[in-house]
Write a structure and sequence with these properties.
The protein is mostly helical. The chain has a domain of about 180 residues: Orthogonal Bundle (MetI-like fold), CATH 1.10.3720. It is about 70% helix and about 5% strand. A hairpin with a 2-residue loop joins strand 1 and strand 2.
Length: about 300
């Protein structure tokens, strides 16, 4: 009878640096925000405990509710446009050879551009006097003004995000497509399956995990968008492109209401977690149903 080998607990020291980094970058700031959210900070030396008053005040804020509806609408529009477009782009990219390498580099270029530079590029691009987009639309007789029209500003921010982040979805889908074994395609050719049937029954099911990652990444990132619309429109005209992150910044920095801003940031954090949880579970349920139906067939 062999003796049980003792467990080496020293392995936990390998993750100690990670725990320290997470503590300083996430846990301690979160505790600070929680502390601010239950206090009225009158001065650096004077604070009054208010409990949940700031949370109640924030939840009754009409501007916050409008910003939340605007943010959810924008994030859903981003997913509706970028995911199908990314899949289509990945399907059209060459699979092998130097063309594949060249296309991958070209597609990934927009991902290398910083967020503030993206806003500046589209700020110039949309101007009617010097911008290619603005001048072209003006030449076609289309009234386009992203600084004066709420509709034009919202659409410009959406198109800018699509241009910037669709390549991420495309690259993820491209990697997923390349991981599908050739045996599936050979069986499809023998059965005489059309391209649409291959997409429906082979490619999309095999891309489910990749698409789940892409959807969650794009949803979380679009829900926290700040720099691009701030540089492009400043949140205007009016509040047309004032999303939740900009509303939070106005509270914390512009008005210096640290208590309400801290309460709102916690609510903002919980909203993102809740929506991602719902979206993740919905996608898992859809995938389970597809597998069950496929097994019955």
């Amino acid at each position: 009878m062999s003796a049980v080998k003792p467990v080496n607990q020293k392995a936990w020291f390998l993750i100690l640096p990670v725990i320290v980094c997470v503590a300083f970058s996430a846990i301690l700031p979160l505790m600070t925000v929680v502390n601010y959210s239950v206090q009225d900070i009158i001065s650096p030396t004077r604070r009054v405990f208010v409990g949940t008053d700031w949370f109640k005040a924030v939840m009754r804020d009409d501007d916050l509710q409008d910003a939340l509806v605007r943010q959810i609408t924008y994030s859903l529009a981003v997913l509706v446009v970028e995911v199908p477009l990314g899949i289509a782009l990945a399907l059209s990219m060459p699979a092998k050879g130097w063309r594949a390498s060249m296309v991958l580099v070209i597609v990934a270029i927009s991902l290398l551009i910083p967020w503030n530079v993206v806003g500046t590029i589209w700020q110039i691009f949309g101007r009617a006097d010097i911008g290619l987009l603005g001048a072209s639309l003006a030449g076609l007789g289309i009234d386009y003004n992203y600084t004066g029209s709420s509709r034009d500003a919202w659409l410009t921010v959406l198109v800018m995000d699509v241009w910037h982040w669709t390549p991420l979805v495309a690259l993820l889908c491209y990697a997923g497509l390349r991981a599908i074994p050739d045996a599936y395609y050979q069986a499809a050719r023998i059965d005489g399956a059309s391209k649409l049937a291959v997409l429906r029954y082979i490619q999309l099911p095999k891309l489910r995990g990749v698409l789940m990652i892409a959807v969650l990444l794009r949803f979380m990132d679009s829900f926290m968008i700040y720099t691009e619309p701030f540089v492009l429109t400043g949140g205007g005209p009016g509040n047309a492109t004032t999303f939740l992150s900009q509303y939070l910044t106005q509270k914390a920095v512009g008005q210096f209401d640290l208590g309400p801003a801290a309460a709102f940031s916690l609510i903002y954090f919980l909203i993102i977690l809740l929506l991602c949880f719902i979206l993740y579970n919905w996608m898992l349920r859809v995938g389970t149903q597809d597998k069950t139906e496929g097994g019955h067939e």
